[in-house]
Amino acid sequence: MENINNTEEYLTLIDIIKILKKKIVFILLVTILCTGIIALKVMFLSTPMYVASATAIVVKRDTSIVQNSKNESQYTQNDILLYEKIIDTYVQIAQSNLVMDKTAEELKNYSSSQVRAMVTAAPITLANSSSTSSLSGGAGNTQIIKLTAVGSNRDDVAKISNTYCKNFIEESMSLLPVGKIQVLDEARTPSNPIPTSKSRSIACGFLFGLLLSIGIVLFRNYIDRLKIGNEKQVKDILNIPVIVTIE
């Protein structure tokens, strides 16, 4: 057993380079193959995705209004915190099965699960925005919820987003009528698909092919080194004499 441990060999960096040089053709072929497959998928087989978004503005009704030194209306801190919780509740309503089912029922071509996979709702906080101050009555009491649809059908994503936005407003006003919600911007049919980083995907395919081919070469070399190939290896590893060899 001591001889086995003593005869154990370790590869240096130079040994690894020599092994890879011997298999350079195999490495190049595997790398080119993997890169070509990824490039083919990205350029010709990938489905372009489109995105469209509608926005709904939420205006809180007057509650705890106080006057500052300039005799201007302001909202208390508790009022603002309560309003933020209401916005979170509206987002939860937008993500509810009630809104998803109603949207799918109106669209007809999509199931509720498909609609849920395509749409998202998220608040957009506006601080001191002049575009919304006239609707809200002041800064800090208005927030916009963005309702986005992503899909492979360019003509459908805008329709899905607008239908989703309409149903969200209807159900929110029915379930939680503590403020006023109205459509700020309707979704429009996108002209271009979502930009994708084709060069990054191809580079990842190249790197994957290179690492895969090098791994295969080194693993095969390791397996070959475990095999007994001549009389000297029999004597060194097994420590027994060789009586007969067959060639």
Automatic annotation (TrEMBL):
Q: What is its main location?
A: membrane
> Where in the cell does this protein reside?
Cell membrane
Identify the residues that the record assigns to the Tyrosine-protein kinase G-rich domain, covering every copy: 177-221
Instruction: Give an example GO molecular function.
Output: protein tyrosine kinase activity
**How does it sit in the bilayer?**
Multi-pass membrane protein
TM annotation in the entry:
24-44, 205-223
Keyword list, A-Z? Cell membrane, Membrane, Transmembrane, Transmembrane helix
Organism superkingdom? Bacteria
InterPro entries for this protein: Bact_polysacc_biosynth/exp, GNVR, LPS_length_determ_N
Ranges for domain Polysaccharide chain length determinant N-terminal? 11-107
Query: Its GO CC terms?
Result: plasma membrane
The family line of this record is: Belongs to the CpsC/CapA family.
Q: What is this protein called?
A: Capsular biosynthesis protein
Name its species. Clostridium thailandense
